[in-house]
Amino acid sequence: MPTPKKKTSKSRRDMRRSHDAISAPATAIDKKSGELVRPHVAFKAADGALFYKGKQISASKSKA
After folding, report:
1. In whole angstroms, what is the distance from residue 61 CA to residue 13 CA?
2. Per the confidence metrics, is the pTM higher than 0.85?
3. What is the model's pLDDT at position 63?
4. CA–CA gap between residue 31 and residue 3 (Å, rounded)
5. What is the mean pLDDT of residues 17-38?
6. CA distances for 20 relative to 5, 31, 42, 60, angstroms
7. Which tens digits make up the pLDDT trace of 49-64?
8. Number of other CB atoms surrounding residue 51 within 10 Å
9. What does the alpha-carbon distance between residue 41 and residue 19 come to, in Å, rounded to a whole number?
10. Are the C-beta atoms of 24 and 46 separated by less than 8 Å?
């Protein structure tokens, strides 16, 4: 099995790993409710209605 001829320096090793960091997920604030929401994803309000881009896209579930 081949082995490296030269030792990889700490700087070169760390530069290779520079893309491995975990980034925080993108969030936006909903205009109507003020909640944190994921962009481009519909979210369910407390009453069960679905909202997308600040507009209601489905009715709330009424309990009988």
Report:
1. 55
2. no
3. 61
4. 58
5. 86
6. 26, 34, 29, 42
7. 888 887 888 887 776 5
8. 19
9. 26
10. no
DSSP the chain: ----SSPPPHHHHHHHGGG-PPPPPP-EE-TTT--EE-TTS-EE-TTS-EEETTEEEEPPPPP-
Tokens of 26: 């993108």
- Reported as a single tens digit per residue, the pLDDT across 9-27 is 999 999 999 988 898 889 9
Gap between the Cα atoms of 62 and 53, Å rounded = 23
Mean of pLDDT values over 27-56 = 84
> 37 is written with which tokens?
């929401």
Structure token pair of residue 39: 């962009």
Which amino acid does the sequence have at 32? K
